[in-house]
Amino acid sequence: QVQLVESGGGLVQAGGSLRLSCAGSGHPFSSFAMGWFRQAEGKEREFVAVINWNGGNTDYADFVKGRFTISRDHAKNTVYLQMNSLKPDDTAVYYCAASFPGNELKYDFAEYNYRGQGTRVTVSL
To answer: What's the pLDDT score for residue 57?
Structure first.
């Protein structure tokens, strides 16, 4: 079993930055690929970013490329999402999720084995 807890959300002005964290516990965290997803009010959940088990392979949704960076720290059992140049359209609840096997990048939230409860990000004008 893996427990995932997101943190770092909050209110930020457009153009600002936030760093989200997802702390994992339970099963060896380093064996999982990790993804970030988001869901804005009234919209479907969408893929944001994904990183494989060793951090050597990442992918991003087109709408965050060049602005967001996913990374992980095995020593801290944590995956991060650095979000820069934030826009009001980035306002959403952000979720992290863990999937196995760790070398596969997955883009469908339903395919992930474990999911966090989310952290809210609000970007104001």
So the answer is: 97
pLDDT category at 114 given cuts 50, 70, 90 is very high
Give the integer Cα–Cα distance in Å for 105 and 114.
15
Strand positions, DSSP E, 14-91? 18-26, 33-39, 46-51, 58-60, 68-73, 78-83
The SS3 assignment for 52 reads coil
Whether the per-residue pLDDT at 27 is higher than 80: the answer is no
Whether 38 and 46 have beta carbons less than 8 Å apart is answered as yes
Which structure tokens are listed for 44? 């479907």
pLDDT, tens digit, 9 for 90 and up, residues 57-89: 999 999 999 999 999 999 999 999 999 999 999
Whether residue 52 contacts residue 102, with contact meaning beta carbons closer than 8 Å, is answered with: yes
* Rounded distance between C-alpha atoms, residue 123 and residue 103, angstroms: 33
Rounded distance between C-alpha atoms, residue 88 and residue 4, angstroms: 26
